């Protein structure tokens, strides 16, 4: 084996961590009879030779030996090596579990791009091996080979014939599922011959094929030929899921026993669902259904009411893609997720809590179950970590974020205890006036924060946010202590002081005693935020306008934007700032243009929307400023979806005069896709941010 491996000058080659002299040992490790050695070697390949999807000269040099490995029947875990080859070839979908996404070669430098292209070419040149492996004795290899075949063998007719032949003779259910998925991939990659693959998929979606194969076929048809789906798709899919679960019996890992080795590959394996195939089948179907949100909700409800807890656990985890990616009525699905909290300790309850904690007020239908769990398990109120500070327990966090007042007494108990999580204040923000009883304890906690500590920022910031949200002006002394008392050199000092100043501003005229401190800050690095807060306290535009106009030319872009936002809140009394705002509205930076445009409209606009007609954007005066603002905001809305919430807030402040942009709001409300959705999946609190945008859009249109 590996003829010529010693003749390769590995020492002259590189991988992610320097010299590639260790690569031969990794290749021999992949061929080892010892499972621990194979796993360590695979981890090394992904960690160094193919680090995060990168391709090096040593990666190219490995390819002949990797192809040799996958064709040696005596080698174990060849399916893992096949997955590695698929990933090196620059394609998603390796079955090894650690493959990286395909690299966009248009975004890398020319020499690096050439290496990627060479890797793709080399894997394509070896693709006939994938054809041979579709009939391998090892079912794991037969599962991995069809996907590689479709991706790399550039003979569509031959590929389709091979897939058809294998479907006819294959008896392993899991391999049949892989063949079915490969037919769907073939249909996408070769539209001209897709009808032949669709015909095969239609046959696979009906008896006598088993429920797993039929589910796989329905998922592929949903993505490439939705007209071939049955009229009763949801009922059919739910029935097949339950038939499959009954045939499968109690779920157990189908992975072979492996040593508990702390490798990246090993950790990824342990994080897989206990029924990974079932999870993938339903994810594929959901993905194929796309914007058919009602069908997807009904399908999810069917999954969540399955008698099989593994099916329900899979459903809970995959609900995030639907909840955070698409708009719909989620009352019943969320209630069904809440029902899983009574299932006792284990992955199902953990999954439900995790999903609910990111839904904020959308989690309200599960509030009773969350309250019951919090009430029954005080050990879940605070989560202790092996490393790092304690955090609020997820069930309590989810209950508080949902806005349920039953969280308040428990939070009060935690605040009075010996361990107070730093993020508790963040949860309080979502409770509104119901959290007012917590204000004294929050003030006490802020007063005891060590401002010289490197942890001052993460500890004080949530408390400031909570006190500001509650409008607790009695906290002025504690907040001013932060404004004046953070020593120089403390990490994130500038941001912490700015947050404290904003909190004073949130108190409004009730914090008037803090005005002298704010005036003293008008010639410091916090001038802009201090001027904004001072306006909230005193309402004297003449006192703060010169400072904010000066801040419009600050070297720091966020401070320029903050100044424009503050001038917008001042409104017509800030008219002397209009020339600078007009210049800023033509900035090369999107977010600056947007902030300046909002300020232009609120400062220089009038209620005469008709005055927009026939005026060029460069004309000054109320109509011209509004025309410029409308043009900039319309372009910003379309260019970056994340500008939509601040633009909608601006339109709410403008009132009925916002009519020229109402078409954007109508289109937003009609779209089934959340504005925060990403092709790569949801990030952060997508549903929470999107629901906020929808709420403001409705309010603007109702008031218009």
Q: What gyration radius follows from the Cα positions, in whole Å?
A: 30 Å
Helix percentage: 55-70%
Poorly predicted parts: 92-102, 252-258, 267-271, 607-620
Instruction: Write down the overall geometry.
Output: globular
Quaternary structure state of the chains depicted = single chain
Binned strand content: under 5%
Number of helical segments with 4 or more residues: 36
User: How many strands?
Assistant: 4
Strand order of the largest sheet: 1-2
Q: What would you call the structural class?
A: mainly alpha
Mean pLDDT: 90
N-to-C span: 77 Å
Major sheet: 2 strands, antiparallel
Account of the 3D structure:
The protein has 704 residues and is mainly α. Helices cover 61% and strands 1% of the residues. The chain contains 36 helices and four strands. The strands form two sheets. Strands 1-2 form a two-stranded antiparallel sheet. The longest helix has 18 residues.
Q: Would you spell out the secondary-structure blueprint of this structure?
A:
Elements: E1 14-15, E2 18-19, H1 23-30, H2 35-49, H3 57-70, H4 78-88, H5 110-125, H6 128-133, H7 139-152, H8 156-169, H9 173-189, H10 194-204, H11 211-224, H12 233-248, H13 264-271, H14 276-289, H15 293-304, H16 309-325, H17 331-339, H18 347-357, H19 367-376, E3 382-383, E4 391-392, H20 394-401, H21 407-416, H22 424-428, H23 439-447, H24 456-470, H25 476-485, H26 493-507, H27 515-520, H28 527-538, H29 541-551, H30 557-570, H31 578-584, H32 590-604, H33 622-639, H34 644-654, H35 662-670, H36 686-703
Antiparallel strand pairs: 1-2, 3-4
Helix pairs in contact: 1-2, 3-4, 3-5, 4-7, 7-9, 8-9, 9-10, 9-11, 10-11, 11-12, 11-14, 12-15, 14-16, 15-16, 15-17, 16-18, 18-20, 19-20, 20-21, 23-24, 24-26, 25-26, 26-28, 28-29, 28-30, 29-30, 30-32, 31-32, 32-33, 32-34, 34-36, 35-36
């Amino acid at each position: 084996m590996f003829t010529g491996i010693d003749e390769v000058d590995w020492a002259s080659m590189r991988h992610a961590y320097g010299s590639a002299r260790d690569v031969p040992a990794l290749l021999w490790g992949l061929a080892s009879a010892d499972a621990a050695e194979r796993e360590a070697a695979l981890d090394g390949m992904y960690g160094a030779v193919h680090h995060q999807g990168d391709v090096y000269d040593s990666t190219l040099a490995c390819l002949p030996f990797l192809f040799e490995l996958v064709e040696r029947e005596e080698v174990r875990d060849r399916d893992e090596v096949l997955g590695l080859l698929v990933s090196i070839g620059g394609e998603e979908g390796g079955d090894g579990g650690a493959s990286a996404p395909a690299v966009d070669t248009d975004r890398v430098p020319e020499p690096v791009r050439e290496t990627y292209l060479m890797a793709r070419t080399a894997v394509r040149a070896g693709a006939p091996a994938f054809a041979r492996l579709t009939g391998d004795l090892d079912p794991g290899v037969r599962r991995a080979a069809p996907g590689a075949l479709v991706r790399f063998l550039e003979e569509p007719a031959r590929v389709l014939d091979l897939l058809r032949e294998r479907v006819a003779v294959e008896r392993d259910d899991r391999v049949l599922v892989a063949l079915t998925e490969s037919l769907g991939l073939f249909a996408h990659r070769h539209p001209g011959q897709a009808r032949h693959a669709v015909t095969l998929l239609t046959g696979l979606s009906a008896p006598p094929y088993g429920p797993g194969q039929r589910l796989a076929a329905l998922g592929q048809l949903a993505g490439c030929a939705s007209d071939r789906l049955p009229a009763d798709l949801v009922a059919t899919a739910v029935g097949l899921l339950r038939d499959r679960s009954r045939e499968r019996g109690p779920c157990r890992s189908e992975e072979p026993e492996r040593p508990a080795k702390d490798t990246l590959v090993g950790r990824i394996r342990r994080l897989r669902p206990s029924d990974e195939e079932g999870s993938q089948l339903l994810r594929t179907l959901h993905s194929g259904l796309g914007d058919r949100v009602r069908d997807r909700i009904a399908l999810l409800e069917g999954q969540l009411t399955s008698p099989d807890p593994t099916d329900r656990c899979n459903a809970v985890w995959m609900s995030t893609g639907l909840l955070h990616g698409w708009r719909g009525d989620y009352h019943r699905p969320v209630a069904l997720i809440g029902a899983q909290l009574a299932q006792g300790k284990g992955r199902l309850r953990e999954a439900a809590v995790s999903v609910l904690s990111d839904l904020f007020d959308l989690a309200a239908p599960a509030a009773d179950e969350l309250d019951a769990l919090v009430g029954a398990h005080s050990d879940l109120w605070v989560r202790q970590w092996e490393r790092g500070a304690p955090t609020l327990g997820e069930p309590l966090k989810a209950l508080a974020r949902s806005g349920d007042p039953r969280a308040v007494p428990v939070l009060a108990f935690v605040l009075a205890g010996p361990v107070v999580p730093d993020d508790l204040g963040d949860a309080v923000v979502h409770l509104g006036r119901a959290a007012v009883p917590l204000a004294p304890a929050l003030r006490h906690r802020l007063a005891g924060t060590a401002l010289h500590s490197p942890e001052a920022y993460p500890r004080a910031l949530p408390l400031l946010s909570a006190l500001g949200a509650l409008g607790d002006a009695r906290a002025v002394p504690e907040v001013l202590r932060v404004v004046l008392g953070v020593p120089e050199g403390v990490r994130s000092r500038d941001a912490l002081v700015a947050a404290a100043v904003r909190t004073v501003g949130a108190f409004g005229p009730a914090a008037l005693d803090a005005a002298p401190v704010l005036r003293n800050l008008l010639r410091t690095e916090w001038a802009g935020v201090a001027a904004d807060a001072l306006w909230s306290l005193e309402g004297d535009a003449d006192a703060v306008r010169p400072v904010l106009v000066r801040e419009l030319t600050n070297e720091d872009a966020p401070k320029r934007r903050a100044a424009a936002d503050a001038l917008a809140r001042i409104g017509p009394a800030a008219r002397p700032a209009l020339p600078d705002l007009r210049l800023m509205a033509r900035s090369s930076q999107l977010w600056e243009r947007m902030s300046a445009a909002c300020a232009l409209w609120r400062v220089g606009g009038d209620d005469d929307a008709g005055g927009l007609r026939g005026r060029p954007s460069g004309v000054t005066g109320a109509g011209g400023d509004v025309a410029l603002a409308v043009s900039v905001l319309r372009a910003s809305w379309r260019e970056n979806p994340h500008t939509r919430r601040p633009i909608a807030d601006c339109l709410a402040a403008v009132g009925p005069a916002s009519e020229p942009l109402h078409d954007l709001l109508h289109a937003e409300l009609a779209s089934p896709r959340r504005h925060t959705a990403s092709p790569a999946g949801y990030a952060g609190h997508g549903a929470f941010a999107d629901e906020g945008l929808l709420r403001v859009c409705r309010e603007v249109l109702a008031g218009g």
